[in-house]
Amino acid sequence: MAEKLYFKIGEVARIFKVNTSLIRYWEQEFDFFKPKKSKKGTRYFSRKDIDNFEIVYHLIKEKGLTIQGAKHYLQSKKESETLDKLAVINTLKRTKALLKDLKIVLEERSHSNAPENNKTDLK
């Protein structure tokens, strides 16, 4: 149930259902993408990088903005407010997923520990 700290580019591509080339391209276009790179050049994206990618993904793929439009939008006064709201939303999504996982584990435990006959005579 532990959440990963870093994700490889292929994992990020699968999460968002995009090509790795798009991720590399947006990394060049948006200066706040700063994945760590190994000596071999493997990119390791932190949770913050993924949150930032999700913001850009939302603006371009879901809202239909161009790259320049997304850059302008992010540089406007709404930037900090938008980033804060999306960060809260992402935190809530992760918390919800964690709680769902916890619920499943607890339900499995309660079913495996439950006695077969829960009936008691009340006389």
Characterise the protein shown here.
The chain is mainly α. It has one domain: Multidrug-efflux Transporter Regulator, Chain: A, Domain 2 (Orthogonal Bundle). Helix content is 64%, strand content 7%. It is built from 5 helices and 3 strands. The protein has a 3-stranded antiparallel sheet. Strand 2 and strand 3 form a beta hairpin. The longest helix has 36 residues. It starts with 5 loop residues before the first strand and ends in a 10-residue tail after the last helix. The relative contact order is 0.10. The mean pLDDT is 84.
- How is the main sheet built? 3 strands, antiparallel
- Unreliable stretches (pLDDT < 50, length at least 5) are none
CATH topology: Multidrug-efflux Transporter Regulator, Chain: A, Domain 2
Shape: globular
Name the CATH architecture. Orthogonal Bundle
Which percent range describes the beta-strand content?
5-15%
The helix/strand class is mainly alpha
What integer value in Å does the Rg equal? 21 Å
SSE order in H/E notation? EHHEEHHH
The N- to C-terminal Cα distance equals: 46 Å
Compute the number of strand runs: 3
Strand order of the largest sheet: 1-3-2
Helical stretch tally: 5
Number of structurally distinct domains: 1
Mean pLDDT: 84
Summarize the structure.
The chain has helices spanning 9-16, 20-29, 47-62, 67-75, 78-113, and strands spanning 6-8, 36-37, 43-46. It has 123 residues and is mainly alpha-helical. The protein is globular.
